[in-house]
Amino acid sequence: MSDATSGGPTLRQLELLLTLASSNGIASAGARLGMTPSATSHSLRALEKSLGIALIDRNAPGVKLTHAGEAILPHVRDVFASLQIVRATASAGAKLDTGLLTIGSHGASSSLNVLPPILEAFKKRYPGVDLFVTEKPDVEIARDIIERRIEIGVVALPKDELDTQILAVDELLVVLPPDHPLAALDTVPVKALADYPIVMTHAGSQPVIARMFAKAKVKPRIVHDLTQILSILEFVRRGQGISILASLVLPQDYQGLVYRRIQPTSTRRVGLACLNEKRLSPAARALWTLVRDAKAHGHAFMPAAHVQALTSRR
């Protein structure tokens, strides 16, 4: 890669172009990289000068790449994908006895229940490889994979732009105080949820919940909109409302709460994702293969009785 003095684009400038493609403003794109607005503008102008062409349509609202910008974007992504593989391959021994693998997690559902058994199995097989988990919202994990900031991560499916393999099917459950009228039911009809105030999650399962209500033509009465799972559980425990959460985020036992299934059932799929399974670094390929082979041999990383255990009467 040429440096700035030879007139070629720098890695920093190319990283800015990647970030611009998924941002709503030039300054906000630079801020994601820790750059000031003036440094961002200077870097963009220098990149355009080095390539001899405009990359941003400055007459369009927000950020819109020119035709040339769109054309070179896949090649810029390839640069960072190759750089990532070079670094990972250099740090990993031929037998994967060293190295570092960063794994994206889209939130509590994967961090609490999906990833731990996978990481445990991986570490048993490759004890010398360090694993680093970074937790972000689902859309950011997918974006980081596309922009080659990470190679692999756990996301909500489908993700048509990524290579994926399913890890678990997550079911929505009602979270209730044990003395709540709905707690006497084995399964709770969706329409019955409209009769009670709801503490809505602002996390990854919110789109699934919204689709569930829309399909049933039910308008929920939302009284709180919270992000943290523990906050939601405490609000429900203290009588602030009921909630609907994905089964994978729920603790097995939480004092003062019970979980009930919903009729009709609403589910979401959780999967392992990468940009191109054929172009993974050695460590990422090993993780991908471990999950694929375990599934092929009928070994599940999620306990089959997970929902049943959560909803058993207490």
Description:
The protein is of the alpha/beta class. The chain folds into three domains: 4-80, Orthogonal Bundle (Arc Repressor Mutant, subunit A), CATH 1.10.10.10; 89-167 and 269-311, Periplasmic binding protein-like II (D-Maltodextrin-Binding Protein, domain 2), CATH 3.40.190; 169-267, D-Maltodextrin-Binding Protein, domain 2 (3-Layer(aba) Sandwich). The chain contains ten helices and ten strands. It has helices at residues 11-20, 26-32, 37-51, 67-91, 108-125, 138-146, 206-215, 229-237, 282-296, 306-311; strands spanning 100-105, 130-135, 152-157, 163-176, 187-189, 197-201, 221-226, 242-246, 258-263, 267-274. Strands 1, 2, 3, 4, 5, 6, 7, 8, 9 and 10 form a ten-stranded mixed β-sheet that branches. Strand 1, helix 5 (108-125) and strand 2 form a beta-alpha-beta unit. Helix 1 (11-20) crosses helix 3 (37-51). The chain is globular and about 70 Å long. The termini are far apart.
